[in-house]
Amino acid sequence: GDAMRVMLVILVAALAGGPVTAMGELPTYLWAEVSVPESVLSGLTEEAQTMSLPTAHWRPEGMEISGAESLAELESAEQGYLLVDGPFFLVGWGGTPTAAMLRGREGAGELILRREANGAVPQVAAFLDLLDQLGLLPENGALDLTEREVPIKLPRSPEDVRLDSVLWALVVHPDWFGFAEAQGLERVGLRVRVVAETDGDLDEAFEPFIEASSNALVELLIPIPLLPELGRDPSVLLVREPFRPHPAQPVGGDA
Question: How many CB atoms lie within 10 A of CB 250?
Answer without folding.
Answer: 11
